[in-house]
Amino acid sequence: MPKLLTLLSDFGLNDAYVGMMKGAIYLVNPALTIVDLTHEVPPQNIAAAQFHLINAYPYFPAGSVHVAVVDPGVGGTRRAIALELADGFLVGADNGLLTELARRRSILHAVELNNPRYWRATEPSATFHGRDIFAPVGAHLASGVPIQDLGTAIDPATLVELPIAVCTPTPTGYTGNIQHIDRFGNVITNIPGEAVRGKSWSISVNRVMVPGCRVYGDVSAGKPLALVGSHGWVEIAINGGDAHFQLRLNWTDSIKVVIESE
Q1: CA-CA distance, 148 to 36, in Å (whole number)?
Q2: Residue 231 lies inside a defined structural domain of this protein
Q3: pTM tops 0.70, yes or no
Q4: Do 116 and 35 share a domain, yes or no?
Q5: Which of 102, 110, 189, 203 could disulfide-link 210, Cβ–Cβ 3.0 to 4.6 Å?
Q6: Could you give the CA distance from residue 96 to residue 138 in angstroms, rounded to a whole number?
Q7: pLDDT at position 262 over 60
Q8: Are the beta carbons of 7 and 67 closer than 8 angstroms?
Q9: Which of 100-104, 139-143, 249-253 has the lowest mean pLDDT?
Q10: Which domain holds residue 222?
Q11: Is residue 200 in some structural domain?
Q12: DSSP output for the chain
């Protein structure tokens, strides 16, 4: 039975790129089911793509194939890879996007995608491996082709890793960073919800103290708050507004959680 296949990219929806990837998949197997995770990753932002992939992965059946294409190094020396995990498959560029999720789930097999039999064409475009390599390879995997047939085995220890900012304990709480900003302007940090659960806490950012709350409605409209989002991370929001814009927060900003009492 064909497996489910997901797509994630920074291609947006103004152009036909996503449609072409789907066409390449259906040329391999028109019976496959495709789910779009998102195609609105900020252009070339591998860390944001990694955030989406890690958070979405647990909500799909075991054996699903996830094709993730945010690939600023397309056509260069970076490897095209597929990974078999204990409960699914990842396909994309060896640029760090796939690695953190793969490490968390246990890698069974890793291959470099150098068998053109499973590409859309033996001479793929130098600028669109999403259409010519990753999408058709994902379709073959979802149709039952063994990962070992797709290319040469590689050592998982050689996979590229993204430098990941860590959440650091401090005498008064934690210091972290912004890992994602969603379309509502909610700012998601890398501070886990477990760090603040059951405690009185607030966030200090840009000389503003933002109270820790349970839901958006705990403050009046237009006021800032912090809470643990559905993804399990501490996020900063404005009730009915845009925290990214109103608090002038950006991807590189440092975030401080202050624990007020245990």
Answers
A1: 26
A2: yes
A3: yes
A4: yes
A5: 203
A6: 18
A7: no
A8: yes
A9: 249-253
A10: 168-261
A11: yes
A12: -PPEEEEEES--SSSSHHHHHHHHHHHH-TT-EEEEEES-SPTT-HHHHHHHHHHHGGGS-TTEEEEEE--TTTTSSPPEEEEEETTEEEEEESSSTTHHHHHHH-EEEEEE---GGGSSSSS--SS-HIIIIIHHHHHHHHTT--GGGGSEE--GGGS--------EEETTEEEEEEEEE-TT--EEEEEEGGGTTTSEEEEEETTEEEEB-SSGGGS-TT-EEEEE-TTSEEEEEETTS-HHHHTT--TT-EEEEEEEE-
Q: In which residue are the tokens 């040469």 written?
A: 152
Residue 172 CA to its chain's centroid (Å): 30
Place of tokens 């109270």: 211
Q: Would you say how long the chain is, in residues?
A: 262
* Site of tokens 């603040």: 196
- Asked whether the beta carbons of 242 and 184 are under 8 A apart, the reply is yes
- Could you report the per-residue pLDDT of 119-177, keeping only the tens digit for each? 999 999 999 999 999 999 999 999 999 999 999 999 999 999 987 778 999 999 999 99
pLDDT at residue number 207: 83
CA neighbor of 132 nearest in space, from 140, 142, 141, 122: 122
Q: What is the mean pLDDT of residues 187-213?
A: 92
Distance from C-alpha of 223 to C-alpha of 240, rounded to nearest angstrom: 8
Q: Same domain, yes or no, for 14 and 56? A: yes
139 touches 200 (CB < 8 A)? no
In a domain, 94, yes or no: yes
Same domain, 70 and 199: no
CATH number at residue 231: 2.40.30.90
pLDDT averaged over the chain? 94
